[in-house]
Write a structure and sequence with these properties.
globular, mainly alpha, DNA-binding transcription factor activity, transcription
């Protein structure tokens, strides 16, 4: 687990939206989503429920 990925997680929690968090972090939304999915797989838990707006 990398500290960078934990920062991504906290940014999404604060923004309550993956797209807005990606914009604030200056990274692409697909990259952020992929990093979060990898974190979920590493921890073995679902951190976010993804759905349409």
């Amino acid at each position: 687990m990398e500290l960078r990925v934990l920062r991504y997680f906290f940014a999404v929690c604060e923004a309550k939206n993956i797209s807005k968090a990606a914009e604030a972090l200056h990274i692409s939304q697909p990259w952020l989503s992929r990093q979060l999915k990898n974190l979920e797989a590493e921890l073995g838990v679902t951190l976010f429920y993804r759905g349409h707006q």
